[in-house]
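User: Predict the structure for this protein chain, please.
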Amino acid sequence: MRENLIAPCGMNCRLCVAYQFKEHDINKRGFHRKYCPGCIPREKHCLHMADKCELIGKGKVRFCFECEDFPCKRLKSLDKRYRTKYHMSMIDNLQLIKEQGMDKFLDSEKKKWRCSKCGSVICCHNGLCLNCDLEKLISNRKYRWDDEK
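Assistant: Here is the predicted structure, written as structure tokens:
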């Protein structure tokens, strides 16, 4: 886990399906998805927040928690969707960074999102490790957490 892959909104880009698809070059396996290097490496401030927040959009703050409106309505909505569908909270991520620092946050992310089989990182959008579970994703391209139930 790297600090430059933590977006201003609290998203850990390392966990994102678009980032992992790029990292594993999944399109050569028949997918046709956009790849993403992460918000900070491509010099963007946050896909979901920059268009609605001048501070984020112009890079005036590094993280949303630096704003007096934290958590704003937009972040709360995004956070609710991620809590419900993807087993993560951007607001919790930002609180942990604010209260305990980036190193503690990155350590906790390594543990939380570690594949129990190979030690790689699982994807927050589908719960799969692309090292171990790629065939599952190839056979069900819309695979999501708990599809096997």
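The CA atoms of residues 33 and 40 lie 20 Å apart.
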